[in-house]
Amino acid sequence: MIKRKRIRDKGKIKLSRYFQNLEIGDRVAVLRELSLQPRFPKRIHGRTGVVEGMRGRCYIVKIKDLNKEKSYIIHPVHLKKIEENVIEKK
Q1: Over 80: is that where the pLDDT of 52 sits?
Q2: What sign for the dihedral angle of Cα 44, 48, 51, 52?
């Protein structure tokens, strides 16, 4: 579990990351922004999922937890978009 930011990441949150736009069907990684209070369980940090839709300013992300798919409502500051060509190479 991450408890502190790296020295390079300290400071204000970038507005482009706070207000980033994601499309339905985009693959995202859940990475907790340590300067803000998270509204999701610790166990999904580092997992990947698919954006299902929006609810207010947050996104509904479908993540496979063990053998069951679950939907979480996560603010975009905690999400990082995964490029498609990176997934295909693996």
Answers
A1: yes
A2: negative
